[in-house]
C-alpha cells in the first residue's frame, strides 16, 4: 500500500530534483511537493511523512503524520514547538554530514588563535610590519589542555585532530560516556564549571537547546584562564556576545574565534568586529563539497527505511531539540 510523502518547498533544497530522487529510492512512497502554504494545507491531511518545517497550524492538519525530516542538521530555535514535541511523529535531522568541514574550520580557527594570526591579519590590511609576537603569546598545543564541549560527530573529529598536535583533549557531553579517539576523558555537563579553569582552549560544538542557550556567559567566562582561547562553531545562542566582548576587552580572555553568533548577521557596530584578538567568520563552517549529495543521501535512506517499516536514522529527541 502506497504511503504519502509531502515535500514542503525550502529555499536551500532543490525540491523537484529531490522529490524525483526520493520517489526512485522508495517506490512505496507517493511523493508530492507543496509549493506554497495553501498546497501544504491541502496535502498534509493525507501525509504519512513530510520533509521541511511545520508550524502549529500545519501540524494540526497532519493527522496521519508519522515521520518528519527536518531540513537542517540542527534546526533553529522554534522548530520544535510544544505541539510538535507532544505529537507522536518521529523527527529526523541531517546530523553527521558536516563533520569534516566544520571540524577543519574549528581547528583552523584554533590554530590561528594559537599563533596570534588575527592581529597579523589586521596588520596586513594596513601594510604594517610589526613583529610583536612574544613566546608567551603562543599557545603551545603539546603543552595545552583543550576542552571540547559537545562530543558528537563534529566534536569527536575535532578531538582527534587536535590530539594529533599533542594537546590533552577533554570532552563534555550529556549523552556520550565513551572517549573517542584522541579524547583523554569524558565528563557530563555538570562538571563544566570545574573543567573550565583547567582549559587552555575551549571549543564549543553544541546545538541550540534549552540547556545550551547562554551556556557561556559572564559567570563562566570568569572561570577560564586569562590566556585561554574560545572557539564556537556550534550555535550562536550558546555564547553571550556582550559578555565575550567585555572579557576580551578587559583581557580576561586570550582570544576568541566565532563562526556563529547570538545575533546573525552580527551588527556592524558590535565591538567584536574591531577586537584585535577576535577571529570572525560569517557562519560558513558548514561550507564544503558534497553537502547537497550527503543531505539527499540521508533523505533517501530514511525514505527507504520508512517505506519498509524499518527504524529511521538520525532520530531526534524532540524535547531536547537534537
Oligomer: single chain
Strand order of the largest sheet: 8-7-6-9-10-11-12
Strand coverage percent: 15-25%
Give me the secondary-structure category: alpha/beta
Shape: elongated
Could you list the spans in which at least 5 consecutive residues all have pLDDT below 50? none
Mean pLDDT: 96
Provide the CATH superfamily of the largest domain. NAD(P)-binding Rossmann-like Domain
- Which topology of the largest domain does CATH recognise? Rossmann fold
Kindly report how far apart the N and C termini lie.
32 Å
- What top-tier CATH class of the largest domain fits best? Alpha Beta
Q: How many helical stretches?
A: 11
Q: Domains counted in the coordinates: how many?
A: 2
Q: How many extended strands?
A: 12
Please identify, by name, the CATH architecture of the largest domain: 3-Layer(aba) Sandwich
Query: What does the main sheet amount to?
Result: 7 strands, parallel
- Helix content, binned percent: 25-40%
* Global Rg: 22 Å
Order of SSEs, N→C?
EHEHEHEHEHHEHEEHEHEHEEH
Amino acid at each position: 500500500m502506497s504511503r504519502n510523502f509531502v515535500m514542503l518547498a525550502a529555499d536551500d533544497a532543490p525540491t523537484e530534483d529531490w522529490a524525483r530522487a526520493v520517489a526512485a529510492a522508495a517506490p512505496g512512497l507517493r511523493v508530492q511537493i507543496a509549493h506554497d502554504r495553501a498546497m501544504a494545507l491541502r496535502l498534509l491531511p493525507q501525509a504519512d511523512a513530510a520533509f521541511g518545517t511545520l508550524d502549529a497550524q500545519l501540524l494540526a492538519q497532519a493527522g496521519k503524520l508519522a515521520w518528519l525530516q527536518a531540513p537542517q542538521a540542527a534546526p533553529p530555535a522554534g522548530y520544535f514547538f510544544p505541539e510538535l514535541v507532544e505529537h507522536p511523529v518521529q523527527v529526523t535531522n541531517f546530523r553527521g554530514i558536516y563533520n569534516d568541514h566544520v571540524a577543519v574550520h574549528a581547528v583552523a580557527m584554533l590554530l590561528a588563535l594559537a599563533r596570534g594570526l588575527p592581529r597579523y591579519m589586521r596588520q596586513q590590511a594596513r601594510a604594517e610590519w610589526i613583529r610583536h609576537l612574544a613566546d608567551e603569546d603562543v599557545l603551545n598545543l603539546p603543552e595545552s589542555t583543550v576542552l571540547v564541549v559537545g562530543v558528537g560527530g563534529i566534536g569527536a573529529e575535532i578531538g582527534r585532530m587536535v590530539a594529533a598536535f599533542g594537546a590533552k583533549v577533554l570532552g563534555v557531553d550529556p549523552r556520550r560516556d565513551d572517549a573517542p579517539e584522541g579524547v583523554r576523558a569524558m565528563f557530563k555537563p555538570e562538571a563544566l564549571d570545574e573543567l573550565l579553569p583547567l582549559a587552555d582552549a575551549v571549543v564549543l560544538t553544541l546545538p541550540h537547546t534549552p540547556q545550551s542557550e547562554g551556556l557561556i556567559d559572564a559567570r563562566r567566562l570568569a572561570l577560564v584562564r586569562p590566556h585561554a582561547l574560545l572557539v564556537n562553531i556550534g550555535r550562536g545562542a550558546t555564547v553571550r556576545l556582550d559578555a565575550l566582548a567585555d572579557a576580551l576587552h578587559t583581557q580576561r580572555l586570550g582570544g576568541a574565534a566565532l563562526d556563529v553568533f547570538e545575533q546573525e548577521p552580527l551588527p556592524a557596530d558590535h565591538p567584536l568586529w574591531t577586537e584585535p584578538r577576535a577571529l570572525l567568520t560569517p557562519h560558513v563552517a558548514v561550507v564544503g563539497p558534497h553537502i547537497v549529495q550527503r543531505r539527499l543521501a540521508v533523505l533517501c535512506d530514511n525514505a527507504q527505511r520508512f517505506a519498509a517499516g524499518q527504524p529511521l536514522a538520525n532520530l531526534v529527541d524532540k524535547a531536547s531539540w537534537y
